[in-house]
User: Fold this.
Amino acid sequence: MPATSGYGHGYATIGNMTPWLAAALLIGLVVAAPLRPGETQRSVWDGVYSGEQARRGQELYTKQCVGCHGSALQGTHAAPPLAGAGFLSAWSGLTVGDLFERVRASMPPDKPSSLSREAGARIMAYILQANDFPAGKTDLPQSTDALQRIRLEAIKPNE
Ligand code: HEC
Assistant:
C-alpha cells in the first residue's frame, strides 16, 4: 500500500529529525543570547561614573539626604546605611537601575518623585564612589534602561 508506507516514512523522518532540530535551536539560543545588541552588561567595577558626577552628587546628598543617612552614608537612628557590607549585600545582584528607581520613587520621604533623572544619576555616582567602586571617564547614564544594564556586585567578578 504505497499511500500508507509513504505517510509512515514521512512521519518517521520528522520524528527522527526532532531531537536534532531541538539541539540546533538550543545551541543557536546559547550562542546568540550574549550577542544580542544593546544587551551588553557592565558592572559597577567597570568605571561606570565620573569623579565630577560623584562630586555633584555629593552636593545634592549633602542638601537632601545627609540628615538621615549620615555624612559617611553610615546610616543614623533615622535611616539605614547607603554604604558598607550590609548595604552592598542587600543590593548585590540587582542593578544600578533598581537602586535609582527606588530612590527616585521614595526619597527623600517628604518629597518622593521629586529628584530629576540628572540629580538621581549624580546621587547614584556619589553612592558608588562612597562604596569604593572605581570612577571612569564617562558619566552614569540617566535612562532607567541603560542603568538596568549595570549590575551591582559586592564582589568584583572574575574577568
Ligand atoms: C527624613 C529622613 C530621610 C531622608 C531625608 C532621606 N532618606 Fe532615604 N531612607 C530613609 C528611611 C527611613 C529609609 C528606610 C525606610 C524606607 O525604605 O522608606 C530610607 C531608605 C533609603 C534607601 C534604601 C536603602 C536600602 O538598602 O534599602 C535608599 C537607597 C535611600 N533611602 C536613599 C536616599 C537618598 C539618595 C536620599 C536623598 C535624596 C534620602 N534617602 C533621603 C529616610 C530618609
The chain has a mean pLDDT of 86. The first strand starts at residue 42 and ends at 43. The chain has two domains: 2-35, 42-151. The beta strands are 42-43, 150-151.
